[in-house]
Specification:
By secondary structure, the protein is an all-alpha fold. Among the domains are: about 1-135, no CATH class; about 480-580; about 600-685, no CATH class. About 60% of the residues lie in helices and about 0% in strands. It has 39 helices and 4 strands. The strands form 2 sheets. The chain has a two-stranded antiparallel ribbon. A two-stranded antiparallel sheet has the order 3-4. α31 (about 535-545) packs antiparallel against α32 (about 550-565). InterPro entries: ARM-like, ARM-type_fold. This is HEAT repeat protein.
Length: about 675
C-alpha cells in the first residue's frame, strides 16, 4: 500500500504552510490502525493541503494515495471519501490548482464508485457524494438506489441522483419525500429544489417532522451556513412562506431556531421577502425558549423597514439595555438598540445614554443610525440637557451629513465637555468653529489628519498645521486614513518646504506596498501644487497601472490635475480607460475621464456597474457631480431587481444597507432628472 509515496519530490511541492515535505508522513498516519492517530493526521491534511478550502500543488499529488486509503485503509475511510469529494467540489474547494485536483479525483472515479457497495454504510454514504463529484454517471447510483437500505446512504444517493439525472429522478425523489426515512425526506426535498422540480402535495408537514426528528444533510452537500436554510431560501415564495410558518410553529425549539435562521437568509437575498416573512415571527416574541427569543431579535435587527411593525416590542427590550450593557456578547437588549437605530426610532437615545453613565459598565459599538427628524430632535434635546453625552453620541452623528445640521449649536456647546469627540464630529460635518481648534491641531500634528489641518488653515490662515500633517504622513510612520485625498493645488508655494521629503517618493515606479503607493500619490499632489505636474506623472501613472485602492487615489489625482493642466495629463486617458472594469477604481477613473472631456454617455456603463462599489458610498455622488443622466436606466434597473447585492455591506447588515442604498438611488434619480430638466429649460431659452 502507498507504493510510490516516497518517489514524489514533496519538498518541491507546496501547501498552505510552505514546502510539503511533511505530507507523506501525514498520509501514512492517515492510514494507521490507531484511529486517534489517523484522525489527527487527516485533520492536519485538511489544514495543509486543503486549508480553508484552498487546494495547492501538494493536493494534486496526495489525491491518489488518499483514494487508496479510502478504499483499503484501516480506519476513517469515510472521512477520506468525504475529503476526496470536497476536493473536487467547486462549492467547497478553490485555488489555482483546482482544475488539476479535480482531474486527479476524476482519475480515481472507479475506486470511488466501487465504494458504493462497501460493507460500511458510512463509507457508502460518503462514496455517493465523492463519486458524483468525481464525475460518475447515474448508472452506478441507480444500481445502488435499488438495494440501499441505510437511511443516511440512501439520502446522499438521492442528492446525487438529483444532481446527475434530474430528468429521470423526479418520480423517485417525489416518492422519497413522502415516504422515506427522515434523512431521505430532507435530502430528496433538497434534490428536487436544486433540480427545479416541484414538491409533491403533502411534502411540507413531513419535511418539518423530519427536521423535528433531527434529520439533516452532511456538511459537504450543504449550500449555506446551515443546511436547512435552503428549505426557505430556494422554494417559490408561497411555498417558502408555508415552510417557514410550519418550522416556526414546530413543537421543537431547535426547529423554530432553524426556521428563524432560514427566514433571515431569505430576507438577505430577496427584497420582496421581509414583508412576507417578518410578520411570521410575531408569535415567537414571547417564546419560552431563550434561544428562539434571541433569534427573533436577530431577525428584527436585520429585517430592515419590515421590523417597524414590532417597534414597540423592540423598544421595550431596548429600555432594559442599561441593565445588560456591560455583558459580553450581543444580548437581546443590545440587538434591540441596534434595531431602533436602523428604524430611525428615537427610543434608543435614552437607554444608550443612561447605560454610558460613568458609574456603569458599558460596551457598545454603534453602527449606522438612521437620522430621522425624530431621532435628530431627540439627540438635540439630550445634548442640550447633558452636553457630556456627546462622548457617546458623537460617533453616531458624524455620518449624518446634512441631516445633522440642526445639531450644530449643541455640538459646539458640547466641545468644553466632550472636546475630542465633539470636535471630531464638527470636522466630519464640515463645520468650522474656533472652539474645536486645539483638538484639530492635535489631530493634524499627531495623526496626520489632513482634514483637520485644512480646517485649521481655513479658520486661522496658518499653513503650519497642514505642513505638520503632511510631514507626518510623508516622512513618518503615519498611514494615510482619508478616504479621499484633498486637492492641495491652492496651497502652491506654501508647500515648498516639503519638496525634499515628497520628491523622495516619486520614483517613477509603484511601490510594492499599497500604503506606500498612497504616500506616492500624496507626494505627487504636494510637488504638483508647487511646481506643476510634469515631474510627478510617471509615478502617478505607475500607481494607476497597479490597480486596487491606490489606483483610485491616482485617478483622483489625475482628475484634480485635469482642471488646471488638462493638456499635461491628457496622455493618461488610455490608462484611465484600462481601469473602467476594475471595481476598486473605475468610479474615480470615470470621473477623471469626464474631466478630460470624455462624454458621460461613454462612461454610463462603468458608472452604472459601480453603483454598489464601496457599498454605494462613491458612485452616487460622482454620478450627480458629472450630471450623468445616462445612468438613469442602470439606476432604475438596480431598484427593479429583487435580489440584493452582497457587495454593499457585511453579512449581518445586508437588508438595511440595501434599503438605505435604494433610498439614495431614488434621490439620485430625482436629482438627475431635475438637472436634465434644468438643462432643457436653458436650451429652450
Amino acid at each position: 500500500m502507498l507504493d510510490g509515496l516516497d518517489a514524489i519530490a514533496w519538498g518541491e511541492l507546496s501547501h498552505a504552510y510552505g514546502e510539503a515535505d511533511d505530507t507523506p508522513e501525514l498520509i501514512r498516519q492517515a492510514g494507521a490502525e490507531d484511529g486517534e492517530a489517523a484522525s489527527a493526521a487527516i485533520s492536519e491534511l485538511y489544514g495543509s493541503i486543503f486549508h480553508q478550502g484552498t487546494v495547492c500543488p501538494a493536493t494534486v499529488a496526495a489525491v491518489p494515495f488518499l483514494a487508496e486509503l479510502a478504499a483499503a485503509g484501516a480506519t476513517h475511510r469515510a472521512d477520506l471519501a468525504w475529503m476526496l469529494g470536497m476536493l473536487a467540489d467547486d462549492r467547497q474547494a478553490y485555488g489555482e490548482s483546482l482544475p488539476w485536483v479535480r482531474a486527479a479525483v476524476a482519475a480515481r472515479r472507479e475506486t470511488l464508485v466501487a465504494l458504493l457497495d462497501d460493507a460500511d454504510p458510512e463509507v457508502r454514504e460518503a462514496a455517493a457524494y465523492a463519486a458524483v463529484k468525481a464525475g460518475a454517471g447515474a448508472g452506478p447510483l441507480w444500481r445502488r438506489w435499488a438495494v440501499e437500505d441505510a437511511p443516511a446512504a440512501r439520502a446522499t444517493l438521492a442528492l446525487g441522483l438529483g444532481e446527475v439525472d434530474a430528468a429521470s429522478a423526479g418520480g423517485a425523489l417525489a416518492g422519497a419525500v413522502l415516504r422515506g426515512d427522515p434523512p431521505v425526506r430532507v435530502a430528496a426535498a433538497l434534490a428536487l429544489l436544486r433540480a427545479g422540480l416541484d414538491w409533491p402535495a403533502g411534502t411540507i408537514p413531513g419535511l418539518v417532522a423530519a427536521v423535528d426528528d433531527g434529520a439533516k444533510i452532511p456538511y459537504a452537500w450543504a449550500r449555506g451556513a446551515e443546511w436547512s436554510e435552503e428549505l426557505v431560501v430556494a422554494p417559490p415564495a408561497p411555498v417558502a412562506v408555508e415552510v417557514a410558518r410550519q418550522m416556526l410553529g414546530s413543537a421543537s425549539p431547535v426547529t423554530r431556531r432553524a426556521g428563524l435562521w432560514a427566514l433571515r437568509q431569505r430576507c438577505d437575498v430577496s427584497r420582496s421577502a421581509p414583508p412576507m416573512f417578518v410578520p411570521l415571527v410575531g408569535p415567537l416574541l414571547d417564546d419560552p425558549d431563550a434561544g428562539v427569543r434571541e433569534g427573533v431579535m436577530d431577525v428584527l435587527r436585520q429585517a430592515g423597514a419590515a421590523a417597524g411593525q414590532f417597534a414597540d416590542v423592540v423598544a421595550g427590550a431596548a429600555a432594559r439595555f442599561p441593565e445588560t450593557a456591560g455583558e459580553q456578547g450581543f444580548t437581546v437588549e443590545y440587538r434591540a438598540v441596534e434595531t431602533l437605530h436602523r428604524l430611525g426610532d428615537p427610543r434608543w437615545v435614552e437607554p444608550v445614554c443612561v447605560a454610558a453613565a460613568p458609574d456603569r459598565p458599558f460596551r457598545f459599538a454603534p453602527g449606522a443610525v438612521r437620522p430621522t427628524p425624530q431621532v435628530v430632535a431627540a439627540v438635540g434635546e439630550r445634548l442640550a440637557a447633558r452636553p457630556a453625552d456627546a462622548e457617546v453620541l458623537a460617533g453616531l452623528i458624524g455620518h449624518w451629513g446634512a441631516a445633522a445640521a440642526p445639531l450644530l449649536p449643541e455640538l459646539v456647546a458640547a466641545v468644553p465637555h466632550a472636546g475630542a469627540q465633539a470636535a471630531g464630529v464638527l470636522l466630519m460635518l464640515g463645520h468650522d468653529d474656533a472652539a474645536a481648534l486645539p483638538f484639530w491641531r492635535t489631530r493634524a500634528a499627531e495623526g496626520g489628519d489632513l482634514q483637520a489641518a485644512l480646517a485649521v488653515r481655513r479658520l486661522t490662515g496658518d499653513t503650519g498645521a497642514v505642513l505638520d500633517a503632511l510631514r507626518a504622513l510623508l516622512a513618518g510612520d503615519v498611514w494615510l486614513r482619508q478616504t479621499n485625498m484633498p486637492d492641495l493645488g491652492e496651497l502652491g508655494e506654501a508647500l515648498a518646504p516639503l519638496l525634499p521629503v515628497a520628491a523622495a517618493h516619486l520614483t517613477g515606479t509603484a511601490d510594492r506596498m499599497h500604503p506606500k503607493r498612497d504616500k506616492q500619490v500624496l507626494a505627487a499632489r504636494v510637488v504638483a501644487a508647487v511646481s506643476g505636474p510634469d515631474g510627478v506623472l510617471p509615478t502617478v501613472e505607475a500607481v494607476l497601472a497597479g490597480g486596487r485602492t491606490p489606483a483610485r487615489h491616482a485617478a483622483d489625482c489625475v482628475a484634480d490635475l485635469a482642471r488646471a493642466f488638462p493638456a499635461a495629463v491628457a496622455h493618461l486617458e488610455p490608462r484611465l480607460r484600462d481601469r473602467l472594469d476594475d471595481p476598486w477604481n473605475r468610479l474615480a477613473a470615470a470621473r477623471a475621464l469626464a474631466r478630460l472631456g470624455v462624454p458621460t454617455a461613454e462612461l454610463a456603463g462603468p458608472l452604472g456597474r459601480g453603483i454598489t462599489d464601496y457599498a454605494g458610498r462613491l458612485a452616487l455622488p460622482i454620478i450627480v457631480e458629472l450630471g450623468a443622466v445616462e445612468t438613469i436606466p442602470a439606476l432604475e434597473e438596480f431598484l427593479g431587481r429583487d435580489g440584493r447585492s452582497g457587495a454593499i455591506a457585511s453579512a449581518d447588515d445586508l437588508v438595511w444597507a440595501d434599503e438605505l442604498l435604494q433610498e439614495r438611488v431614488r434621490e439620485t434619480i430625482a436629482r438627475l432628472r431635475a438637472l436634465s430638466a434644468a438643462d432643457q429649460d436653458a436650451a429652450d431659452r
